[in-house]
């Protein structure tokens, strides 16, 4: 049933996140277990992006309003931006996007064609004042962390090549998450509308060419996609990865975008092989989207039963009685020292209740320790997904957990 997978229900039951009207609507508070899931996702994507040549940076959550006027975002997004903050006669904004920050970072020194493509990435905290009626759990919030990146390229051919590599990364991420094309996600080519000059940057020829390039990229990849008019970003067309929640509502999870305007607005130039200044080309992309939104999708995908590498508690140690507590503590300490997220249930409850509690919490592995285990220096291992796995040694347990975590199975 959809209700059994609803991330809002499971998020509360599994103590992943909460909200407080005193803090504010749409501003999620991550509980320890939820913070653990976030941390694993962030480490995973940052390490993978660095491996693929991205340069991770940090930029401020706030900037002068002039920055967003310069980028062109302010007239298009001002209704969903937080109100300006006036300090010392200057207006500042909580940022709703990172692109202008990254462009200013690019401009911090002269760039050569040898520096490009330059892949600037950040796990960026963003703020958008979504309408109250649009807020929905973690899927639509007012404060979120985006796995954002902006790729500065020498020409349109390099830009299209980088878009293909960004799609490769997205497909790799989906494979790790066990998300299947056609079942869990689909591609959408989001196009502009030449007549809608209030919403879109005016450059008819540029739009025609950019949309043609993205269409050819998807066809070359033999990727099924649908086209959607009037769904583009104001500065250019994009390839969106669309996912549905358990209630059937669709949202964009990841995106790769072709930018027609920012290079001109920010004078994003580089020195070419000929020693002359050339206009750069810009690609925007998000590899796992907003952390909040992907966590919501994954809670529903797994029905709260996260794979071992993402599980807030990876193993729970259940001594049957007080006589088994010392051995249980040794197992617990050994797992902790090896960065396994373990918990020791040393309560006075009987074994049946301890096992039921671990099942309710959807812990991947339970480790039972009684007289036989202490005598044999072994543990009895039970898997959430595969049932009773019998007795194994502490060394075998550690090896098994490490291998499964590393493989992200």
TrEMBL record:
InterPro entries: aa-tRNA-synt_IIb (IPR002314), aa-tRNA-synth_II (IPR006195), aa-tRNA-synth_II/BPL/LPL (IPR045864), Anticodon-bd (IPR004154), Anticodon-bd_dom_sf (IPR036621), Thr-tRNA-ligase_IIa (IPR002320), ThrRS_anticodon (IPR047246), ThrRS_core (IPR033728). Pfam families: HGTP_anticodon, tRNA-synt_2b. It catalyses: tRNA(Thr) + L-threonine + ATP = L-threonyl-tRNA(Thr) + AMP + diphosphate + H(+). Residues 32-307 form the Aminoacyl-transfer RNA synthetases class-II family profile domain. It comes from the Bacteria. One of its GO terms (cellular component) is cytoplasm. The keyword Methyltransferase does not apply. One of its GO terms (molecular function) is threonine-tRNA ligase activity. CDD domains: ThrRS_anticodon, ThrRS_core. It is an enzyme of class 6 (ligase). One of its GO terms (biological process) is threonyl-tRNA aminoacylation. Keywords: Aminoacyl-tRNA synthetase, ATP-binding, Ligase, Metal-binding, Nucleotide-binding, Protein biosynthesis, Zinc. Its EC number is 6.1.1.3. Belongs to the class-II aminoacyl-tRNA synthetase family. This is Threonine--tRNA ligase.
């Amino acid at each position: 049933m959809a209700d059994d997978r609803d991330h809002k229900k499971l998020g509360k039951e599994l103590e992943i996140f909460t909200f407080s009207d005193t803090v504010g609507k749409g501003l999620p508070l991550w509980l320890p277990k939820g913070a653990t899931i976030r941390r694993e996702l962030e480490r995973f994507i940052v390490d993978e992006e660095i491996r693929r040549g991205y340069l991770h940076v940090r930029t401020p959550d706030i900037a002068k309003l002039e920055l967003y006027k310069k980028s062109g975002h302010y007239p298009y997004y001002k209704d969903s931006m937080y109100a300006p903050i006036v300090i010392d006669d200057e207006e500042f904004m909580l940022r709703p996007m990172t692109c202008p920050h990254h462009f200013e970072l690019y401009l911090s020194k002269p760039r050569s064609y040898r520096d490009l493509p330059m892949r600037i990435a950040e796990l960026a905290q963003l703020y958008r004042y979504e309408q109250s009626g649009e807020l929905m759990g973690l899927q639509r919030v007012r404060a979120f962390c985006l796995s954002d990146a902006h790729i500065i390229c020498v020409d349109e051919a390099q830009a299209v090549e980088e878009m293909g590599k960004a799609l490769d990364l997205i497909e790799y991420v989906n494979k790790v998450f066990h998300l299947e094309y056609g079942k869990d996600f689909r591609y959408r080519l989001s196009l502009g509308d030449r007549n809608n000059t209030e919403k879109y940057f005016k450059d008819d020829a540029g739009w025609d060419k950019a949309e043609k390039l993205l269409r050819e990229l998807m066809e070359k990849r033999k990727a099924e996609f649908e086209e959607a008019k009037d769904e583009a970003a104001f500065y250019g067309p994009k390839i969106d990865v669309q996912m549905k929640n358990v209630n059937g509502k669709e949202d964009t999870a990841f995106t790769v975008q072709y930018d027609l305007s920012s290079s001109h607005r920010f004078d994003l130039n580089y020195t070419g092989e000929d020693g002359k200044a050339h206009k750069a080309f810009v690609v925007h992309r998000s590899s796992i989207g907003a952390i909040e939104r992907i966590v919501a999708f994954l809670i529903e995908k797994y029905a709260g039963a996260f794979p071992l590498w993402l599980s807030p508690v990876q193993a729970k140690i259940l001594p049957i009685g007080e006589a088994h507590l010392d051995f249980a503590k040794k197992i617990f300490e050994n797992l902790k020292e090896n960065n396994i997220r373990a918990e020791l249930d040393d309560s006075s409850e009987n074994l049946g209740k301890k096992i039921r509690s671990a099942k309710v919490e959807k812990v991947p592995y339970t480790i039972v320790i009684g007289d036989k285990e202490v005598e044999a220096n072994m543990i009895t291992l039970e898997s959430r997904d595969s049932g009773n796995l019998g007795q194994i040694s502490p060394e075998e347990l550690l090896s098994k957990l490490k291998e499964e975590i590393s493989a992200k199975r």
